[in-house]
């Protein structure tokens, strides 16, 4: 958990998108996502310019990777469970839900990650 907690938020997002499947344990992701979610709730109500863009990406990528881990436990031989894609979809869903971002910007985020080699086809 320290490897994701003590990095900058941008490096943590990259780590959740690109690291190997065995990097994170489910309990680590549950604790990390819950902590980031409650910290984002707290800072959102402070009336300070703290931002919600990167924290919502972190929360969504963590939940997406957690769902991929759980699906991998259910069906270990399934080829359709790719951790990077689930982390990216979770981040886009969380970003669209928290920030109420338009679909076009969320799709641009996904396309950028695919075109830069972040998600394998």
UniProtKB/TrEMBL annotation:
Q: How does it sit in the membrane?
A: Multi-pass membrane protein
InterPro entries for this protein: Cl-channel/antiporter, Cl-channel_core, ClC
Q: Which key words are in the record?
A: CBS domain, Membrane, Repeat, Transmembrane, Transmembrane helix
Q: Name one GO molecular function term.
A: chloride transmembrane transporter activity
Record-linked Gene3D superfamilies = Clc chloride channel (1.10.3080.10)
Origin organism of this chain? Mytilus coruscus
Per its UniProt entry, which superkingdom is the organism in? Eukaryota
What name goes with this protein? Answer: Uncharacterized protein
- Transmembrane domains' residue ranges: 29-47, 53-74, 86-115
GO cellular component terms, semicolon-separated: lysosomal membrane
Compartmental location? Membrane
């Amino acid at each position: 958990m320290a490897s994701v907690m003590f990095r900058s938020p941008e490096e943590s997002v990259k780590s959740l998108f690109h690291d190997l499947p065995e990097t994170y344990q489910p309990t680590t992701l549950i604790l990390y996502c819950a902590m980031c979610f409650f910290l984002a709730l707290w800072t959102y109500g402070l009336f300070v310019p703290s931002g919600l863009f990167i924290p919502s990406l972190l929360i969504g990528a963590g939940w997406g990777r957690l769902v991929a881990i759980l699906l991998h436990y259910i069906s270990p031989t399934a080829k359709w469970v790719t951790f990077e894609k689930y982390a990216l979809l979770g981040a886009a869903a969380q970003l669209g839900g928290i920030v109420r971002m338009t679909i076009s910007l969320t799709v641009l985020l996904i396309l950028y990650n695919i075109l830069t080699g972040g998600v394998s086809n």
